C-alpha cells in the first residue's frame, strides 16, 4: 500500500460519520467506537501508522469534505454520488435500509410507502437520501439532519409519516418512540466500504481490498458487529 504506507510517522486520517449508529457507537464518555473505528484502528496498525479520526456530524458534512484532501480513507457507504472523487474497496458490511413509522400509521410493509400524500423523512446527504431521491415516485421527501434524535423528532412532531434509514437505526427509533414500528421489508441494500481519493486508488486499493478480506476471514468484522449489537446488517458473502 505505497500511497498510504510511505509516511509511517504521519497519522492515517480516517473519516467517520458520527450520526450513523451502524458505523459509529458512543462510549459512556462519548468516545467514538464501533465497526468503523475498530476497522480504522486495525488498518492503521497494519500500516504501522498512528490513527487520526476525522469525524463528521452527519452524512451531508462528510459529503462536503469529499474531494478536498481532508482525509486519507473514508469508512462509509458506497454511494454513487461520491464516485466522482472516490474509489471504493470491496464491501466490508451489508446494511438493510428500511422504514420506521409512528404509532398511528396504517402502513405495514416497505412497498406501501411510495404513495401520494406520504411524507418520508431521511437524513440529508445520506446514502438512503440518494436512493430515495432516485426511486420515490409518489411520496414526498422531507430531509432532516442525521442521527437518532432528528429521526425520532420528525415522526413524533408529525413532520413525516415514515423515516427511511438503516434498519438498525429504525429499531433504535422504536426504542425511543412508544408505539413506533419498523415496517416489514426493505427499500435498499447498502454496501459499506473503505474509500480513497481516486488519484490514489491504483496504488492503495489492492492492499486495502486485501485488508478488508483479512478482516472478514479472521473474524475481526464479525466481532465488531457483535460488540456493537447491530441489527439489519450482515457480512458480505
Quick structural summary:
The protein is an alpha/beta fold.
- Count of runs of 4 or more consecutive helical residues: 8
- Cα distance, first to last residue? 25 Å
Q: What are the secondary-structure elements, in order, as H or E?
A: HEEEHEHEEEEHEHEHEEHHE
Major sheet: size, sense and barrel closure?
Answer: 11 strands, mixed
Structure, described:
The strands form two sheets. Strands 1, 4, 5, 6, 7, 8, 9, 10, 11, 12 and 13 form an eleven-stranded mixed β-sheet that branches. The protein is of the alpha/beta class and 237 residues long. It is built from eight helices and 13 strands. The model has no long low-confidence stretch (mean pLDDT 93).
Entry keywords:
about 240 residues, alpha/beta, eleven-stranded mixed beta sheet, two-stranded antiparallel sheet
How is the secondary structure organized here?
Layout lengths: L1 H4 L6 E6 L7 E2 L5 E2 L1 H13 L3 E6 L2 H7 L7 E5 L8 E3 L4 E9 L17 E5 L3 H9 L4 E5 L3 H9 L5 E5 H10 L4 E2 L5 E10 H20 L2 H9 L4 E2 L3
Parallel strand pairs: 1-4, 1-5, 8-9, 8-10
Antiparallel strand pairs: 2-3, 5-12, 6-12, 7-10, 7-11, 7-12, 7-13
